[in-house]
Amino acid sequence: MSKFTLYIIVFQLMLVSTFNSFAQKHSYFYNQKNSFAIRASINPRLIPMSNNRGDALDGGTYFQGYDKNNKRVRGDEKVNLMLNLSYGRLFGGNKIIGAEFNYQKHHLTVNRKLFVDNDNIDPDSYEKKGIPFLSSSPIFNVYDINVFFGHFKKSALAPSQHLFQYGFGVRMSSLNTKQNYRMDANTPITDLSKFVEGPDDNYLSLRFTFSYTYRILLTKNLNLDLGLSTCVGLSLVQGGLYTFNENEPIYNKYYIETRLKFENFMNILYFRSGLSFDF
Amino acid sequence: MAFSFSTLAFSQVQTLSNFKTTRASGEPPAVFKLSFEETVQKALLEITALDEKNKENYARLTAYHINKILKSGYVLYGDPMTAFVNKVGDNLIKNDANLRDKIQFFVLKNNMTNALCTEPGIIFITTGLLAQIENEAQLAYVMCHEIAHYQEKHLQYAYKEEHQKKKSKPTEVEAADSYSDLVMLSKDHEFDADARALELYYEAGYAVSEINTVFDVLMYSYLPFDEIQIGNDFFANDAVYIPQSYFPEKSNPIKAFEDYDDTKSTHPNIRKRKEAILVELKEYKNWQENIRFFDEIEFKNVQNMARFETVRENVVLGEYIEALYGIYILEKKFPKNEYLETTRAIIWSYIAQLSTTGSTSSLTSNSSKVEGNISMLYGFFKKLNKQELALLAMREVEDIYRAFPNISVIKEVREATIKNMAHIKNFKLSKLEEISYYEALELRENKDTLITQIDTLNLENETKYDRIKRMRIKQSSSQSLTELIDDNFAYFLLYDLVSADDFNKIYNDENKKMRNNQSSSNTTAVSDKERYNNKEIILMTPYLQASKKGIYDVEQTIKFNEIYESEVRKQTKKKNLLNFNFELNENFTTESYNEISLLTDYYLFLVNLKVNISAATFIDKEEFNTYLSKHDHSFMVFILGEATSKSFLKHRLKGKAQYIDITTGEIYLSKDYYVNYRINKASVGGLVYQMFSKF
Predict the structure, then answer these.
(1) Is B666 on the interface with A (CB under 8 A)?
(2) Beta-carbon neighbour count of residue B581 at 10 Å?
(3) Which pTM does this prediction carry?
(4) Do B112 and A14 touch (CB under 8 A)?
(5) What is the pLDDT of residue B572?
(6) For B467-482, how does the pLDDT look when each residue is reduced to its tens digit (9 = 90+)?
(7) B240: left (phi > 0), else alpha (psi -120 to 50), else beta?
(8) Greatest mean pLDDT range, A115-124, A128-137, A180-189, B128-137
């Protein structure tokens, strides 16, 4: 006697049929149409790192400043760290539109060999007579405001798993004035206009971003996000070479502008991780 | 402990003249009230052939499935069929009280010809089997075979073998996608059970001759429960001409044979089983000749009841020709049976609806595969065009109505069928003849003689009936232009109905209504909010299944169900919801159980209905109306869910729900739910959330 479980047949019958369907309306995972995310992004500064070997002051990953005791300290900014906050609203089943706010602290970085005036060569010894560069690196507050459009992969109900985003926004950089900027250990900079040209200026640039985020479900509302973001700055300006002139600010406006634009352009790849809360 | 049906057997004495579908009755047996965990514990006590780890898995697997079957609403208790099966069971193992205590027999309402043995000692006999077997001895043999499976722990060994196979050659294992595959027994087990069954069967004193017939019953079980030729009496009215040319010249041959190739099957073929039994038989001498120990009337009653159930299930499952043939067979024994005739009227009304709103090809879609006498009917229905089908259906319904004018369901069905006629395409009532085909034939053949007779009539003495006769002759000879060929037979079908007042009134009203609807088709669409908000709902037991790499995964299936239940409980707090699943687990009552059975039937009826529900009559309409009068539920919700896991990272969980408007019978389908998550609170909760979000 064959051993079929009969109920299976009974229930299989239920699967074969045609039905009226509801008026088409999009459905979402737990009907979540809002997504709020807080993430941190890490940008490895690959191109500046490759510049560390050069002789020039420009384009490396080192920076220097002074601690509370006015002792010179040096750092190596191999990665940029960016904080992201974003809010998106879902529509059309798997699409999302929203805005993202980013913040990062950015040093204008230099090479390991901190000399200026390298072209000054001693005629006797033929050695370079560069002047040691002791002044602080300026620190900029960088704010990004992006609007983005994105879509979740259609293989699952949104918002879940695979998110692709395309963003466009403005990046604003301004000097962080609350730092212990010094010419050298003994000479504080009291007048920022001698430190940078136009200390109150805002530097603007445009950015396009493309991001991919893989969302790992933790609870029904909470996801751990792992992602990748590529940014393309609109400016293709090559970083201007540093020029040192006495009686002028240590960093002139042209240099700052071109450096910021260049670094903005070169900071292409960001690895992101964080939490998103959907409701 | 064995459940005794002896006292219940007489509490539900049912005669077939007032047959109603069989439901459970009386106090539910203890096994129905067990929770999943309790069933696991009970099963664990029975398992001796497995090691500790497999024991637990096997117990859970069995408990899960047995619970599903027991709570499906399709298992009967306290009914005459189950009572009889238990009586036979008592007799078979009367010498082993211990074994009798461990085994329970139930009848499962299902048209398959089958029996099933599961842990812990539960044996199901289907109504399909009861409808096919011919006597008590054959039933006894099948039961002995199942008892042997239980005694020999074949299921446990089958599970063990399957498990070992998977362990040793994981890549070569064929995907076993359901419980049925896991418990599929090997050829050795089948031979073994046949041999052991003989022992019991012999000891009980049944006749050896019936063993061979049991195998024939199995072999031909795909055919209807009897094979009789379709005669003219298939159509109720003798005055109606049904052209023989519409029937196929001969029926499709019956092709089943014993020695089919069983190399790819886990089951031996019938010939091998017969041969093996012959060898075993040599060990037994002095057979007794008993075909029965209980009154034959009792067996026949059970057999017929099962056959009535088979007809009913065929109607519910949309197998209309099978059902009509079943009724035809049964009416040979039960002429003018109210239940059968009502069912026949309902089926013909569906067929009428099909001819106007549905697809008539669905009626005969598997005609080439059908074997035996029933294939004549399939051929006949295939030959009819839509108009002929609609008119023939009207004829049949009308004749049934005339035989049972006081049965409200038939009256309602008749009205629906008349209304349906207004929807026949390219059709006008004026096409129909007012005399029957036979009369027309006779009148035309004798036209000249009759006209001479009329001309010589003394008109002064002409009676009213002479005048009618004269008018009709003239009609037939001059006004009626319908050629008397087989293709025109349908125009003569409603000869006596076409001028009836009530018929015309219903027809014309429907016609008018239809035209009004066409001119002002401003039906207001009901929004989802209006349709579902604050409605009371009944949640049916869901169908949830999990698989891993294509293989059915019982542990995950159980987990799926458990999380589903806890998530539904959260919803239950918020919603006005009756959950049958919980209801049965927590407070099992026969009343609730039968309500599930009724609602599941209603659901199956709806999903298999090939025509518009608004004009279709549910076969258990009266029972259903009683249910509706007691409850205030608006929707039935049935949830389907499937979780698949292809690798450590690749998971998928999808599901959908059907919402059945209980009063209108409309079925609405939810949007699909699909996520790429493993089974967990969030993913299953999401399914439940989405399925309930409408309410």
Answers:
(1) yes
(2) 17
(3) 0.81
(4) no
(5) 67
(6) 766 666 555 545 566 7
(7) beta
(8) B128-137
